[in-house]
Amino acid sequence: TQTYQITLLPGDGIGPEIIGVTVKVLKAVGQQCDLEFKFTEGLIGGVAIDQTGNPLPQETLDICRESDAVLLAAIGGYKWDNLPRHQRPETGLLGLRAGLELFANLRPAKILPQLVDASSLKRNIVEGVDIMVVRELTGGVYFGEPKGVFSTENGQQRGVNTMAYTDAEIDRIGKVAFETAQKRNKKLCSVDKANVLEVSQLWRDRVTALSSSYPDIELSHLYVDNAAMQLVRDPKQFDIIVTGNLFGDILSDAAAMLTGSIGMLPSASMGEGKPGVFEPVHGSAPDIAGENKANPLAQVLSAAMMLRYGLDQPIAADKIEQAVFNVLDQGYRTGDIMSEGMTLLGCQEMGEVLLKSI
Ligand code: NAD
Ligand code: IPM
Ligand code: MN
């Protein structure tokens, strides 16, 4: 039996509900694949603020560093929205990503055939969509200095953030993107705003320079405004998209709707070593928290990414993805992906049918 130390970070809102379902699924798959998971829970986000005053307690970072992988749900909520920035839940999440040096965030947006009609776009546009967004996660405008709200000489307030990338930061995310492209359809689109931003010009130059080491990959470039438009006009033109932190955040939410719901989209946040953090693309959904309405599948699929990319257990990962496929085939839906003739389930009940299917 292979044993893994997994840190669970349920966080806020729907987090505990979707993590609960996912732990059961992992245990069931573990039994079949002879894997044992040792789970330790940590505090992050709003719950961590309430219990310790800090959205990312040192203890949480320590247990994450000692584990083989981290399964994170989501953080944030109305209650903590007016705290000073360093005490916000989001700051805890950013601190975790920075603390573990998780510079590469893989966000696959693949439509499952059963959900074609749950997308807000037409069937012929979304059928067959299979995109991987490679989002830079520890740089760009999220982390650049200077940042803050400063007073100007004439008594104004001035809010400042800085979008910055070094060549080394661009090269390392670029490499991840080219290598990911080699395992897929060998088409990479780099998204930037090089017509306006210096930082994007450097981004484009470095990605272009890198491409000479990957002659098998067809590289293209798009400005981010056009990329947003193309994603909804003709998403099937994309295979891999590589982009900076902010553009990746925005484009991956847009890509989510191609697949029917943001409640379906998993992600993997990885650095050079272990451990990675595996987290859905969506947030804590405070509007439906505690109502047993959340779609747990993005979290469950994030656990599959954990098995595939973090723990190198592709067979167990396949089993989870197959179980998701099966329950959708059987017509089970949560509210966000509901369509006519299907069976509406709550979060818990979706967990139960998943277990039956494993
Ligand atoms: P959100 O993703 O939480 O919710 C957007 C909409 O999608 C809501 O209507 C919500 O009900 C719905 N939704 C999201 N996930 C769902 C699921 N699994 N099943 C069904 N419906 C789902 O984004 P938001 O409302 O902009 O942000 C809410 C809070 O979450 C904020 O505090 C924000 O900072 C935080 N947030 C956290 C993360 C994260 O932890 N990675 C990501 C995004 C937002
Ligand atoms: C995400 C979220 C986070 C981000 C927030 C909550 C800090 O939107 O994971 O996509 O912007 O990266
Ligand atoms: Mn986001």
From TrEMBL:
Coiled-coil blocks: none
Main subcellular localisation: cytoplasm
Residues flagged as site, Important for catalysis: Y142, K193
SMART domains: Iso_dh
Alphabetically ordered keywords of this record: Amino-acid biosynthesis, Branched-chain amino acid biosynthesis, Cytoplasm, Leucine biosynthesis, Magnesium, Manganese, Metal-binding, NAD, Oxidoreductase
Residues annotated for NAD(+) binding in this entry: 77-90, 283-295
GO cellular component annotations of the record: cytosol
Keyword Transport: no
Keyword check for Oxidoreductase: yes
GO terms of molecular function: 3-isopropylmalate dehydrogenase activity; magnesium ion binding; NAD binding
E.C. code: 1.1.1.85
Record field: catalytic activity: (2R,3S)-3-isopropylmalate + NAD(+) = 4-methyl-2-oxopentanoate + CO2 + NADH
Domain Isopropylmalate dehydrogenase-like: 5-354
Pfam families noted in UniProt: Iso_dh
Compartment(s): Cytoplasm
Amino-acid positions noted as binding substrate in the UniProt annotation, renumbered to this chain: R97, R107, R135, D225
Cofactor note: Binds 1 Mg(2+) or Mn(2+) ion per subunit.
Necessary cofactors: Mg(2+); Mn(2+)
Record PROSITE patterns: IDH_IMDH (PS00470)
Record's function text: Catalyzes the oxidation of 3-carboxy-2-hydroxy-4-methylpentanoate (3-isopropylmalate) to 3-carboxy-4-methyl-2-oxopentanoate. The product decarboxylates to 4-methyl-2 oxopentanoate.
Subunit structure and binding partners: Homodimer.
Family, similarity comment: Belongs to the isocitrate and isopropylmalate dehydrogenases family. LeuB type 1 subfamily.
UniProt protein name: 3-isopropylmalate dehydrogenase
Provenance organism: Dactylococcopsis salina (strain PCC 8305)
